Amino acid sequence: MRQYIYKTLHPHIFQGTHTRRPYFEGWYFKLISADEQTRYAIIPGIFRGQDTAKDHAFIQVLDGMNGRATYHEYPTSAFWADKKEFIVRVGASEFSLDGVKLDIDDDLLTLKGTVTFSRGRGWDVTPMQPGVMGWYMWLPIMECYHGIVNLSASLNGGWVENGKTVSFVGGKGYVEKDWGQAFPSAYIWMQSNHFDTPNTSLTASIAMIPLLGRSFRGAIVGFYYQDTLYKFAKYTNAINEQLKLTDDHVYWTMRNKTHRLELVAERISGGLLLAPIRTEMHKRVDETMQSTVKVRLTTLAGDVIFDEIGRNTALEVHGDLDTLLKAK
Q: Over 70: is that where the pLDDT of 192 sits?
């Protein structure tokens, strides 16, 4: 029980055990160079399926400029995580609050180097609301959990990819994570921390959440601006005023007791990432890192607080979208 409480209050650290099945856990590192011409997502993690033969650790690498994605599989023995801090190793690579140290060398890719992250703000963690999912984090029966590790980090360092030197000096980064049994059956997720106003970040997701034989539409949105994190979530009684998809855009508006947040994101094709289902890392998810998102934050009286476009936006729109759009 003591370990369960500690882990719940520290959602950024490894949450898994060696006995839970099916189970996955992965961290998402987004890295954008200073000139915004180099964009990567690095995703380390572990998967334990219903069939032990499917068990493995992994590192996914997505080049956000050309959509090339590679999946690097390791035996579970190559995965190690600290019990008290966020330090994870997959093979010869290491991941932590301080950044990524990559050492990948196989038939798909050679990628070696270190990129450090400044320790920016994550989501607030309190006993009543231990992280981005609020009090739902205390429920041991959720199919998928979500955590925000670093909303906006300054980057330093770089790596060598297939003989080419890549610099992230002066760039920006973002870190989040997911863990549980499987990804939701349908979801929309977007993230950007490239706005004209410095130190501004958006992370937003809406998904079908199974719970006790039923499912509901759950939303988690955080907009960080001028040292304030504006939260719009199911557990804060925020209301979805609009969720609409076209071939080219996502239109999404939420309001809480004091503010309204309007999001309009471009839908652009990207690279295919593997995502967990109960039996294997199989579900292929199209993620772009070349979208934009228009963010407009107002008071309920209509006073405009923020109205800008976020660049280098990561966007995923996946699954049974008809159900997601119709759900309450």
A: yes
Structural tokens at position 246: 């076209």
Of residues 27 and 274, the one with the higher pLDDT is 27
Read off the amino acid at residue 234. Answer: K
Amino acid found at 106: D
User: Domains in the chain: how many in total?
Assistant: 1
Alpha-carbon gap, residue 67 to 26, rounded angstroms: 20
Q: Which of 99, 120, 85, 83 is nearest to 44 (CA)?
A: 99
Q: Dihedrals φ, ψ of 100, to 5°?
A: -125, 135
| CA angle (100 as vertex; 122, 119 as ends), nearest 5 | 30
Per-residue pLDDT tens over the stretch 195-250:
999 999 999 999 998 877 778 899 999 999 999 999 999 888 999 999 999 999 99
Where residue 226 falls (left for φ over 0; alpha for ψ -120 to 50; beta otherwise) is: left
Domain that holds residue 64: 2-326
DSSP three-state, residue 208: strand
| All residues at 6 or more sequence positions from 261 whose CB lies less than 8 Å from its CB, including other chains | 221, 223, 230, 232, 253, 254, 255, 295, 296, 297
| CA gap 88, 197 in Å, rounded | 33
Cis before 22? omega within 30: yes
Q: Residue for token digits 């068990």?
A: 55
Count of C-beta atoms within a 10 Å radius of residue 143: 16
